[in-house]
Amino acid sequence: MPIEERTIVHFDLDSFFVEVERLQNSLLKGVPVIIGGHSDRAVVASCSYESRKYGIHSAMPMKRALSLCPQAIVVNGNMELYSKYSHMVTEIISEASPLYEKASIDEHYIDITGMDRFYGSFKWAHELRMRIINEIGLPISFGLSVNKTVAKIATGVAKPNGEKHVTLSMVRSFLNPLPVNKIPMIGKKTTEVLHNNKIYTIEELSNLSRLEVENMLGKYGMMIWEKANGIDNSPIVPYHERKSISTEETFDIDIDDLKLIDNLMVYMTEKLAYQLRREEKLTSCITVKIRYSNFTTQTIQKQISYSSFDEVLLRTSRDLFKKLYKKGLKIRLIGIRLSNLMQGSPQIDLFNDTSEMINLYQALDKMKKKYGRNAIQRAGGMKSDPDHKSPID
Predict the structure, then answer these.
(1) CATH entry, 1-165, from 3.30.460.80, 3.30.70.270, 3.30.1540.20, 3.40.190.10
(2) Which of 50, 107, 226, 249 is catalytic?
(3) How far apart are CA 393 and CA 387, in angstroms?
(4) For FRET with 44, which of 7, 169, 212, 367 sits at 20 to 30 Å CA-CA?
(5) pLDDT in tens, 176-194
(6) Is 0.85 surpassed by the pTM of this model?
(7) 107 an active-site residue?
């Protein structure tokens, strides 16, 4: 399978959370900085390059990080601030780019295929990078190559605050000497499997047959083999920011059984929270809607710190319901809406959560992804799951 030649730029903001904090406080420049909670059981959400020299990395327990670098400055995360700067960068990219994809809060892919006929692609990417640096003040790196995979790997090589151009003729020589964990999709466990089979570099992996890689790595083996060979025909997915997600249930018979309603809210909240995490999004606004038997409809909402976790959203939803509900009236419809969405992995709102909580949600979501969303639920939520034939239906 030949490499399909396009012109793709991958932009990635360097140590994004830390650099945003440094814009607010110049005393943080040049020193080890860790973003996260202050308790020993909290985890590292992000860290500066100065901290990484000590072996600190994201998702590491804070206690361990501070034992490696006691002099590091710990700063509580501020997702609202990071979201603001992310939008500023996206606005500049959207103004300049013919087609772009926002892959996360701090990275974008841009398709500029054909640009060389009118304007040098590398020159265009360089000027866009300098515009972001000059107008916003954040360091950013880019990789320019023939597809998303090679461009992303090139960005990693260019960091921090650098640029890397890998032409079609350079793809093999560029990828070959790199360690296998430089390939997107290859995490710790896959790296261990490859190392156990004496495969350490991308060249060693690419020299295997597709069948050998599939037998070794399972269903993702083919995709990983293609990436190792510089092949990635996945398109740029145009960015459209989703504003909210919601769910609501209308009862066949108007009810006032608060226990059944609470069970339903558990089910609805779990459903929305899992959808957020699956799409790598966070919410900062929760709205509860009630329609009574007389068709009067009322809503109430509350702003929260960015989150995508069941207990945070459920606690807020329950509080809002208690404030909104008028005792003695029967309910016809109940709804929950999550808005003010932003792109972000589930970990980045865990500035004060524990490593145990992160591991729990990762394990639960892994099981839900493998066996279906209803594979694991709170007991109360199961009672109101439509698939379990609740009496509410």
Answers:
(1) 3.30.70.270
(2) 107
(3) 10
(4) 367
(5) 999 999 999 898 899 999 9
(6) no
(7) yes
